[in-house]
Amino acid sequence: MNCTCDCHKQNAQSKLKKCEDRGRAKDKKIKELEKKLLTLTIVAAIIGTIVGKEVVDNVVEYFETFDKVKSSITDLTINDSIQEIPFQTYTGVSPSPSTLAVLGLLAFTPVRRRR
Length: 115
Prior knowledge:
By secondary structure, the protein is an all-alpha fold. The chain has two helices and no strands. The chain starts with 5 loop residues before the first helix and ends in a 7-residue tail after the last helix.
């Protein structure tokens, strides 16, 4: 049921005005927060760039040290006067590798027991 009296119209208009004011206040607050967010994003990007550059420089220095070590190792000369020690083969009584496998199988097989 719709009432067309002035008191209800004024009440509805005042509620509408309050709602519009709240909406404007929220929009203003959102714009302020967006400005802060943009500022913080720019600051974070600048700090990230500076710190990132330092990290990249440290990594490059780290790999350069490896290159220096590698180049110093390759620059070493080999002394040819030292003779290599020949590999000695031992001969004697020892089981062949296949015999060791069979003994290993026997060691892991279960033992049957009488009752």
